[in-house]
């Protein structure tokens, strides 16, 4: 026993010595960005996690940027990682996707997503499916096809709210119904949609298991749920193929996948749909919840938003759907959405892997190293946004809040992997806010806090007490 302990000690010590020697020599040779690799093996992972579990994770980045500058080296989640808080570098990373960098996810995530999900695909197939997805959710398709359903489904959901609701749960229900409708033309309320969603929630939980996935019951449950979801989707694909043979056509994403000249395999279609559901579901629902939270905490902004939407509603009958022209006449709403995206940073940044030694800003990122392009660090940087840490939708009014918003504001990423759902997400949010403020008033039911790890969310799913706004009140306002 004692020998064993001694051996273990020796092994650990030599690993530590090797780690520091290796670090010193490689750093000098390659001019790595400066930084601190922290402890062997775990690096600075624990500092990162504990910062992001609080309402204010900024010090983790601030401290390092102050010491080392906006590009620094750290060691998180098992690997040395170059961290960029610099908008130019971030842009360079995004635009060189597939040339100098490629997206990179741990195996635990790839197994859940499936290898034919857009997020994991590369090369020509990625290019084809990315543009297919872009055209499925582009503004003319939303205007002609999707907007009616978005309006109807959101309205139906809001009309069922009474008393205390957990906004985060409700928003998730809404975005799931929307995605399922848009991807496969399934209407909500069916037991199929609800039971699929339950399995889905389990899959999503699997993405955020931090401990070793093989030992985690959450992760094993997620893999099982993924199999079930994939089976359900396979059945739908088979059915749809039969319908098409019988001459029936549906105007949705699945239809587009089956109609093209590309012969996609069943596995490809299932993986693709499954990942699209993941990408569109969590993100949009959290942004919905946080927009309401920030508005609640900023009464002046909420009042101005209400005014904008009461004016639009005033020209319509009670249940008349919003049209594209209405969506286009909500300038303040767009400011609120941008500001929510900026402050909340649902996708705090993206991980990539260097495909070759990359030289940038006088440093070298060695081939095979991970990089993290932090959008969050840029969006909350005082140099780029005045008073960057506070929620101020008016900053977007004349773009005075942002030095050059186009280049530094990247909530949806950019380059070949630009989020294909960016317009869809904005429309869904706008319609949601419209019906929310014209139909309901609310107060928070409990104090709730934002946390940023493992994902951005509020601790208590944002419980609120809702009341219907009377018609007479709407006229007086
Ligand atoms: C507020 C809501 C959303 C935010 C903040 C967001 C953000 C992002 C970001 C930053 C990326 C880039 C990831 C990377 O470069 O590695 C991305 C990719 C993606 N998003 Fe979104 N997204 C949102 C909503 C949606 C919606 C509604 C859809 C559904 C159509 C969607 C589908 C996708 C897909 C499929 C990708 C992968 C693209 C690729 O790798 O080629 N997203 N999203
Ligand atoms: C949107 O995509 C459709 C094909 O799905 C295409 O015909 C149309 O030109 C696209 N519109 C825009 C504005 O890109
Ligand atoms: C909001 O952000 C987008 C980039 O995602 C930008 O194109 C747009 O101009 C911004 N809106 C306003 C009102 O500044």
UniProtKB/TrEMBL annotation:
It comes from the Eukaryota. Its main location: membrane. One of its GO terms (biological process) is brassinosteroid homeostasis. InterPro entries: Cyt_P450 (IPR001128), Cyt_P450_CS (IPR017972). The keyword Metal-binding applies. Pathway: Plant hormone biosynthesis; brassinosteroid biosynthesis; Hormone biosynthesis; Steroid biosynthesis. The keyword Plastid does not apply. It is a single-pass membrane protein. Its cofactor is heme. GO terms for molecular function: heme binding; iron ion binding; monooxygenase activity; oxidoreductase activity, acting on paired donors, with incorporation or reduction of molecular oxygen. GO terms for cellular component: membrane. Keywords: Heme, Iron, Membrane, Metal-binding, Monooxygenase, Oxidoreductase, Transmembrane, Transmembrane helix. It is found in: Membrane. Pfam families: p450. Belongs to the cytochrome P450 family. This is Cytochrome P450.
